[in-house]
Amino acid sequence: MKTRGILYRERYIKLLSVITILFICILIILRIQNILISFIFASVIYYLLGPIVNAIERTGISRKLGVISLFLFIAVVLSLGLYLLFPVITNQISAFKNELPKFIDGVTKLASATEQKLNAFSYNLYHIDSSRSVAAVLSTFARRAFEDLPDLISSSMAVLVLAPFFAFFMLLDGQAVTKKILALVPNNYFEFALNLQHQMNVQLGDFIRARLLEAGIVGAVVWLGLTIIVFPYAVLLGVFAALTNLIPYIGPIIGAVPALLIALVNGLSGLELLILVAIYVIAQLIDNFLIIPLVVAKIVNLHPVTVVIVIIIGAQLAGILGMIISIPVACIIKLTAFEIYNHLVEFHA
Amino acid sequence: MGSHLWENYFKPTTKEKEINAILKENILFQDLTQKQLKFVANIVHLRKYRKDEAIFRQGEVGVGMYIIVQGAVDINVEENQAQEGHHRQYVVMTKLGPGDFFGELSLVEEGGRRSATASATDNTTLIGFFKPDLLEILERNPAAGVKITLRLGEVLGRRLRETNDRVSVLEDEIKKFRSEGDS
């Protein structure tokens, strides 16, 4: 009886230690500025580079050397890429900045024309007058976007430094740290905790890689299509389409809006507009009929209604970031609930 | 009796070399080179159990196998006839000691449940080797992973043959009893 008492005491202390460690880690990630976003980016880098590091390790090179050489290689490639692409991107940004008044004017005229048509249609019963406020909002937004850009870049520097730093050590010592935390888990929960951690790791890794593959393919198709039809700002619009594609459901629509506005302001003909729309539709068709069924659907086993609810909750709690991370978080919650049920309820029943 | 709580972290009793030596003696890891053994030793888990503490219970989802470093383990099977209101009755199937291993079927089964309960009959130290560990070895060091998997296949095959032999013996005995009953 005495031994059993000590055993139960040890189990409670160990369980409490693990929960406290995890709670403190989550609290630090959520509360300290830049840590959450750095941690999310670090996780993305970790899951993206993990298979490459493993492949290097398979050749017989030590993990340490593999991680260091991979980071050095990426640093060189990124520097080279930035060196080559920087002039193109800065040119496109400065050209866009110069043409922005024209676009604002065009959008305002477009809004005004639509407004007149709507007023004529409703026989001025409900007088719509929004074109002036649209112009004011657009010019304020455009001015602030360019004024805030240097501040945004400087505040992102912490994340740009912290994310690769975290990812480096996650790749190098991640498994050892996980093993040390698992060592604290009481014996009666050990296999459950190990299995849960493994399944979470696999599911998160597959999800992040699949979403990035999706975003990359959508961005590439948009960029290629726009380059073929000689549409302005093809690189910027491709990158924008790729990034917004990470937001489920409404992301692809947001991604197409700038190109459509540019086309309308530039007064593109019906056929040209149709080709432009076709480029975005083709990108989405490839995504929805090839990548999602073949890759993503196997990973995310959530009902579409659940997905929509989860995205709304994510948006309410953390805006765009919440929308992006809502699905993987929901998957983890579902997996944990299922495993707990399997371990505690089904087994004892 | 000293507390096991912090022993693992501040005063390790089983060193890496000892783990290597125990792994090397085990059939699953006997083909590995010294470098591969060191790699595996960094992946496996050292667990300590008190006397009478359950290692796993019959019906739980099994994730992997255990090798006994020191101490003793009983493998028990719950009797089907356990009546309501009575304590569960267990039948001891086998007693295991240092160097023995158990639960290896869980390394290949998907969501398989434990067919017996394993409990420590003394203060026991075990090396835990689980499915995620095997997958990690196959991913990071396929040469070592293949050696382990081949040996695992051999062990499971041997267990199957032993089970078949025992089933045959039992069938013969049933036939014998039936023929005696008829006559």
Which helices and strands occur, and which strands form pairs?
The complex is a heterodimer of chains A (349) and B (183).
Chain A: H1 2-31, H2 35-58, H3 63-121, H4 131-183, H5 187-228, H6 234-244, H7 251-265, H8 270-299, H9 304-348
Helix pairs in contact in A: 2-3, 2-4, 3-4, 3-7, 5-6, 5-8, 5-9, 6-7, 7-8
Chain B: H1 7-10, H2 16-25, H3 34-41, E1 45-49, E2 54-56, E3 64-70, E4 73-78, E5 90-96, E6 101-102, E7 117-120, E8 124-130, H4 131-140, H5 142-182
Antiparallel strand pairs in B: 1-8, 2-7, 3-6, 3-8, 4-5, 4-7
Helix pairs in contact in B: 2-3, 4-5
Percent of residues in helices of chain A comes to over 70%
Q: Rg of chain A from C-alpha positions?
A: 25 Å
How much of the residues of chain A is beta strand, in percent?
Answer: under 5%
Please, how many domains of chain B?
Answer: 1
Oligomer type: heterodimer
Give an overview of the whole structure:
The complex is a heterodimer of chains A (349) and B (183). Chain A is mainly α and 349 residues long. Among the domains of chain A are: 1-32; 185-349, no CATH class. In chain A, 89% of the residues lie in helices and 0% in strands. Chain A is built from nine helices and no strands. Chain A has helices at residues 2-31, 35-58, 63-121, 131-183, 187-228, 234-244, 251-265, 270-299, 304-348. In chain A, helix 2 crosses helix 4, helix 3 (63-121) runs antiparallel to helix 4 (131-183) and helix 3 crosses helix 7. The radius of gyration of chain A is 25 Å and the shape is globular. Chain B is of the alpha+beta class and 183 residues long. In chain B, the strands form two sheets. A four-stranded antiparallel β-sheet of chain B has the order 1-8-3-6. Chain B has a four-stranded antiparallel β-sheet with strand order 2-7-4-5, with no helix packed on it. Helix content of chain B is 40%, strand content 22%. The termini of chain B are far apart. The model of chain B has no long low-confidence stretch (mean pLDDT 86). Chain B has a single domain (7-182), classed as Jelly Rolls (Sandwich), CATH 2.60.120.10. At the A-B interface, helix 1, helix 2, helix 4, helix 5 and helix 9 of A face strand 1, strand 2 and helix 4 of B.
